[in-house]
Design a protein that fits this description.
Elongation Factor Tu (Ef-tu), domain 3, Rossmann fold, seven-stranded mixed beta sheet, 2 domains, alpha/beta, five-stranded antiparallel beta sheet, 271 residues, 8 helices, 31% strand
């Protein structure tokens, strides 16, 4: 059993937990994720390791489906049934001088450890972060600890620029030079970031989040097509260079699974 050391509500949809998991914590690197089960009959939920020390790991989750809502019912002092990790490949930290992180919504969570590692290595780091409202911009204070500049965009204009992160990024590209952009968020956002970055000759890394079940490459649900080859996000990723990713295929597959997940969730909740 894995004890919940700390729980924090980031906004109405998103929460943070610190879990006691020393074996995972001691071996985790930026880009790794873990899979949890709330109870012995629960679904396997893959979540990015946002931070870790010698004993604990920090996760951030969005209350979307049945299992994440069940997770949300847990409080400090409670325990989770399973925590497995670290899984996936650590992020490839490139030899660059300036990086622009682009985060959409909860994508700010998996982006955080990567940008923090670049900053630790002396790379100049800026961030563009977007959300539906000011309330949906998470981890701002923690990002400000190591980012040179943080630029915000909201759909409703309640904070920062009203509009999309790509609009803010394009203005930056016209005034500053970046060697690399790391874009993490909804698939359509990442696709549009890749298109924009190509226009300005900026390399792009992304983190892919297709449906995962076992986390070991056996089930095949997290497969993605990159340069015509099949990769599995759970063992080959989840972080990849964006060049050659078939985003249209991935978006279509994700929509199918989300429709099925919504149906199953309603059945479990008796709706």
């Amino acid at each position: 059993m894995y004890k919940i050391i700390h729980k924090e509500i980031l906004n109405v949809d998103v929460e943070l937990m610190v879990l006691e998991a020393p074996l995972v914590a001691r071996n985790a690197k930026p880009g790794n994720f873990l899979i949890i089960r709330v109870d012995e009959v629960g679904e396997r939920i893959p979540l990015t390791i946002v931070e870790n020390d010698k004993k604990n790991v920090t996760i951030i989750y969005q209350k979307l489906g049945y299992s994440t809502k069940l997770l949300s019912q847990k409080e400090e002092g409670d325990s989770l049934f399973d925590v497995v990790g670290p899984l996936g490949q650590p992020s490839h930290i490139r030899d660059v001088k300036r990086v622009l992180g682009i985060a959409g919504g909860v994508g700010a969570a998996p982006l955080f450890p990567q940008l923090k590692e670049y900053a630790r290595r002396g790379v100049k780091v800026d961030l563009v972060i977007g959300g539906r409202t000011k309330e949906h911009l998470i981890l701002l204070e923690k990002y400000q600890e190591f980012c040179e500049k943080v630029y915000c965009a909201t759909d409703d204009g309640s904070f920062g620029t009203k509009g999309f992160v790509t609009q803010v990024a394009e203005v930056l590209y016209q005034n500053k030079e970046y060697d690399l952009s790391i874009a993490i968020g909804p698939l359509i956002m990442m696709k549009n970031c890749v298109i924009l970055n190509k226009k300005y000759n900026v390399l792009t890394d992304v983190s892919l989040n297709p449906i995962m079940i076992d986390g070991t490459g056996m089930c095949g649900n997290c497969r993605v097509t990159i340069n015509g080859e099949t990769k599995f996000a759970c063992v080959d990723g989840p972080d990849f260079p964006a060049e050659g990713i078939d985003f249209d295929e991935l978006i279509a597959r994700t929509k199918y699974y989300k429709e099925e997940e919504t149906h199953i969730c309603k059945m479990k909740l008796g709706k």
